[in-house]
Structures are given as structure tokens and as C-alpha cells.
Amino acid sequence: MEQLKGIHHVSAITANAKQNYHFYTEILGMRLVKKTVNQDDTSVYHLFYADEKGNPGTDLTYFEIPRAGTTYPGVSSISDTSLRVPNDQALEYWHNRLNEYNVDNDGITIENERNVIHFRDPEKQRLTLVSDETNVGVQGGNPWANSTVPADKGILGLGPVKLTVNNPAPTITALTELLTFKQVNSYPSSAKGQPDILVFATGEGGTGAEIHLEERNDLPKERPGRGSVHHVAFRVKDEAELAKWRERIQTQRVPNSGLVDRFYFKSLYFREPNGILFELATDGPGFATDEAIDHLGESLALPPFFEDRREEIEAKLKPLDTKRPH
Asked: Start and end of every VOC domain (predicted)?
């Protein structure tokens, strides 16, 4: 088996697509690379924010669930999603920008020997900006040239993803024995009296290929809602490699979805022992499959298997204007 290449995407929940679009494109300066629908519920949007081309490893995606309630944080959850910025100087810029836009943040701190800013979006999703100043692993993407943020300060893609569990042992087994992660570091928890947070990496390692595992014995199970994370996906080279992973997961008798065609990539889903949803996703074919690079995300894109229902699908969606001046 080839090693997993790192983080592919993270998918979260929003109750308000319009507000979500404004925050991630105008304030964080990410590019909406795909406006489509949730393939499991076509009455709601699925929005993909990423770098200029939607390169794998740069996508933060949102399912719109208008009636989603409040998230009550806890264990068996993806409790933090990181976004990479080029260096420490960029992080200083971001500290000022977040304050300028009244974005709730904790200022610049150090975590796992890197400078970071923990912050929350309007729905209280837990996010972190992490500096790539010392990164020597997976390369980041390329910020969008038409971003509201200067290119030399822009978000490069996804950084470490934090999992919070009550009992870490079975999750460690899933990461290291089923998947291809190795423990590479640990750092103190910010929660009083809790064990150190363990750092696992795969592939080339670095900020784009890490899972941080937090053990908490003082929290209930998370009740997800708006601002919670639905799943994390890991990068697989291609469909042939994904088929090998399916065979491996089947052999280990882990319940799974089988291969799923998401059109922009192929996927396989399963839950690790603490109930957190993992996805393996191929690097291609990518988001330019059905739209020109210059116009990604500007109109509603539907996979071919939904195209004959376009009129019906569009009628159920609340209009969301994502056209941009060129």
C-alpha cells in the first residue's frame, strides 16, 4: 500500500450558506471553487472553498443544513480544523485582520512548535490559522489571485486536523495499523489536567499531513450542529489506489461505504472506533472537470447523474449569488 498523502478535505455544517459564503470568501479570502448540492440531499447546497484551483489538500467544504441547531462540543468529534498561511509575518497580518473584522480569536500562540491563531467563524466553528514558517512536509496550494487577501498572506490550504476522543487507544490503532500514520510528536493540552495531545503524520508529513489526537475525560459526547465538522478526508493518489484501500478495509472487516463516485473525486467512507467519520478521496479528476478555471464556483454545478433534474433541484434551492467581476 502507498502511504496516504495527507489531508484531502474537511467537510462541516452551516445553517446559512449566504453568511458562510461571505465569511470564507470576503474575510478569509478563500475561493469558492464549487457551488453544488449535497449528493445525499439535493435540496441543500454543498460549498467548496479552496485555493485558486481547488487543489487536493486545500478544500474546506460546507453542507448547508438550514435547521441545524447549536453544536455542543465534546468527544468523538473533529474538534479543530487548521488553515495554513505562508509564514509568521502572514500570521501577524491575520491577527490584525481578524480583529479588524471583529472575528473572535485568541491571538497568536504557540502549538506544536508553530505559531498559530485559534479563532471561530460566525457559527462558532473552531478554526486555527497555522504558520508554515518551518514546514518541510507536504507543500501548500496557491492563494487565489483575485482574493480579498494579498497573495503573500493568503491561505495555502488545510493544516492539522484535531480529533477529540475519550479513549484514544482504538483511534491510535486505526491511524497507525489500518491507515499509514505514525506518531511524530506530542505537546501539552490547553485543558487543565488532561494528557498531552499526540501528533500523527502520514506521507511527507508537515502541516498538510497531520492528525492531532486529544484525549478528554471531562467532556460528554459532542452533539453536532451548525459549525460542527462532519468528516475529514485523506488523500489517495488515484482510483486504482483507492480500490486497494477498499480491499484492505474490507479484509480488516471495517464497515464501509464501498467506492462512491463524487464526480470531482472518488471516495470511500468508514468510521474509526470512536465514531468519527473518515473518508479516503482521490486527488482527481478535480473541480475544473465541468467548469472553466476562471469561472469556478460562479454557477450551480451538478454532476452528470443529476443534470436531468436540474430544474427541479434549482427550484428547491434558495438563490445564492456567487458571480464575481472579472
From this structure: 6-132, 157-283
Total number of domains in the chain: 1
The cell for 193 is 489536567
Rounded distance, CA 159 to CA 137, Å? 11
What is the pLDDT confidence band of residue 306, given thresholds at 50, 70 and 90?
A: very high
Residue 279 lies in a domain: yes
Residue 83 contacts residue 60 (beta carbons within 8 Å): yes
- The answer as to whether 322 is a domain residue is no
CA torsion 117-121-124-130 (nearest 10°) is -20
Range of the domain at 60: 7-316
* CATH number of domain containing 235: 3.10.180.10
Grid cell 459532542 in the structure block, residue: 222
Residue 326: band (very low, low, confident or very high) from pLDDT cuts 50, 70, 90: low
d(C-alpha 287, C-alpha 267), whole Å: 15
In a domain, 307, yes or no: yes
